[in-house]
Automatic annotation (TrEMBL):
Keywords: DNA damage, DNA repair, DNA-binding, FAD, Flavoprotein, Lyase. It catalyses: cyclobutadipyrimidine (in DNA) = 2 pyrimidine residues (in DNA). GO terms for molecular function: deoxyribodipyrimidine photo-lyase activity; DNA binding. GO terms for biological process: photoreactive repair; UV protection. This is Deoxyribodipyrimidine photo-lyase. Involved in repair of UV radiation-induced DNA damage. Catalyzes the light-dependent monomerization (300-600 nm) of cyclobutylpyrimidine dimers (CPDs), which are formed between adjacent bases on the same DNA strand upon exposure to ultraviolet radiation. Required for plant survival in the presence of UV-B light. Not involved in the repair of (6-4) photoproducts. Its EC number is 4.1.99.3. Residues 32-165 form the Photolyase/cryptochrome alpha/beta domain. It is an enzyme of class 4 (lyase). Pfam families: DNA_photolyase.
Length: 495
């Protein structure tokens, strides 16, 4: 349904290749306002979709508004993910209304109903959306295209990837090796500075919506209480930039130099960028991270090159996989060689078979695996190296590869702050189904899928030190939680 044609307008502030026309309206732009339906890129700064919406509104001399739809249950997100998102959006509303005089409208329910209804009410001529490769969002967009008036045009802008997903490649890529050259070739064209965003020429007449953020956040905290919010990661654009560039503990300013050597050592979590929650919720642009990182290349060439490989090539490969492979989260999405080898070994004898409940509660015979699971459950983030070991053990300890991938994705999406993300799905699929990997020496259960074990981890890092670190971390979190509950009870008794 989506055409690869660019909008038929004069020169735009956004490169034409970054914009796709999902629906060509029958009326020329300018008969009504522009609405940006924000979903994946939840930020004011460095947002190509917002830049395009304002640019089109100014060209037509019409106002612009941002609409956000809060899905009741998006892929099982709990208080941890929704609380973080809502607190970021609360800041975003203040920023966009105060600095750009653009109204922020929040809707609840099904976007297939709320967005077309809003477009009809305000008489919009153009809907701008940001891009997500996930099937639920694509299906929702297809439905919106059907439901909106034929007079409305719909543009989709890839504001998440540096090289737009559809420009980087028009097919499912086999591995990082096959997509890397295509992306690198296009970086000079797409890895550019963002234009300065000014308030739109024409103001929206309607009064700004009053949003009771406190009640919304309290509501998601109550409903999703089984996975509570975390404290270590402060939400919002300002906090994201602080993590990237801060004078105190910024990734590029203070922690970058050891990235290439230390990023795979679970006992050195600060060696990682710690930006994945912000990138997932679009509270920071990957393009901004890459632009800033390039400025440090002379100082730390190896660290910057390693980081840009992860940030650009690997992240964008994940979007490619989820867009061109409809079965991106199941055994059906594995390459044929991997599916065959996994099925050949599906009935191999396992030393342990654990239920979903045992795995979720970290009740296995492997203290290293238990520690990684507890780190994720309580801290909301498992170290990247441990995610690989964690997922591969799930393959080893469940009835077969189909169940393994289901459990792996369920736990990842439920507890990781950056769950429900293309990078998360591809991480699970790489570990269990060999996606973007190659075949290795054949062995029981795994077949030709890459194998990892406890002894290998022990050779790589201080396993006992990591287990002790997680034990301390979880103990501190539980202690703070108990103190917080006690202080809340004391307050209630005093009332």
């Amino acid at each position: 349904m989506a055409s690869l044609s660019s909008p038929s307008t004069k020169a735009t502030a956004v490169q034409a290749g970054r914009i796709r026309v999902l629906k060509e309206g029958s009326q020329p732009l300018g008969k009504g306002p522009v609405v940006y339906w924000m979903f994946r890129d939840q930020r004011v700064k460095d947002n190509w979709a917002l830049i395009h919406a304002v640019d089109q509104a100014n060209k037509a001399n019409v106002p612009v508004a941002v609409a956000f739809n809060l899905f009741d249950q998006f892929l099982g997100a709990k208080a941890r993910q929704l609380g973080f998102m809502l607190k970021g959006l609360r800041q975003l509303q203040t920023s966009i209304e105060d600095n750009l005089q653009i109204p922020f409208c929040l809707f609840q329910g099904e976007a297939e109903e709320t967005i077309p209804k809003f477009l009809e009410e305000c008489g919009a001529s153009l809907l701008v959306t940001d891009f997500s490769p996930l099937r639920q969002i694509r299906k929702c967009k297809d439905e919106i295209c059907k439901r909106v008036s034929d007079s409305v045009t719909i543009h989709e802008v890839d504001a998440h990837n540096i090289v737009p997903m559809w420009v980087a490649s028009d097919k499912l890529e086999y591995s990082a090796r096959t997509i890397r050259g295509k992306i690198i070739k296009l970086l000079p064209e797409y890895l550019i500075d963002f234009p300065m965003l000014q308030p739109p020429n024409k103001k929206w007449d309607a009064r700004n919506q009053v949003i009771d953020w406190d009640s919304l956040i309290a509501d998601v905290s109550r409903k999703g209480a089984e996975v509570p919010e975390i404290e270590w990661c402060e939400p919002g654009e300002t906090a994201a930039m602080e993590v990237l560039m801060g004078n105190k503990d910024g990734f590029l300013t203070k922690r970058l130099k050891n990235y290439s050597t230390d990023r795979n050592i679970p006992l050195k979590p600060k060696a990682l960028s710690c930006l994945s929650p912000y990138l997932h919720f679009g509270q920071i642009s990957a393009q901004r991270c890459a632009l800033e990182a390039r400025g440090f290349r002379k100082l730390y060439p190896q660290a910057v090159d390693t980081y840009l490989e992860e940030l650009i090539v690997r992240r964008e490969l994940s979007d490619n996989f989820c867009y061109y492979q409809p079965h991106y989260d199941s055994l059906q999405g594995a390459w044929e060689w991997a599916r065959k080898t996994l099925m050949d070994h599906a009935s191999d004898k396992r030393e342990h078979i654990y239920t979903m409940e045992q795995l979720e509660k970290a009740q296995t015979a492997d203290p290293l695996w238990n520690a990684s699971q507890l780190e994720m459950v309580h801290y909301g983030k498992m170290h990247g190296f441990m995610r690989m070991y964690w997922a591969k053990k799930i393959l080893e300890w469940t009835k077969g590869p189909k169940e393994a991938i289901e459990i792996c994705i369920y736990l990842n999406d439920k507890y990781e702050l950056d769950g429900r993300d293309p990078s998360g799905y591809v991480g699970c699929m790489w570990s269990i189904c060999g996606v973007h990997d190659q075949g290795w020496r054949e062995r029981p259960i795994f077949g030709k899928i890459r194998y990892m074990n406890y002894a290998g981890c022990k050779r790589k890092f201080d396993v006992d030190g990591y287990i002790a670190y997680v034990k301390r971390l979880v103990g501190e979190i539980k202690k703070r939680k108990a103190e917080s509950q006690l202080s809340q009870k004391t307050k209630q008794l005093r009332k």
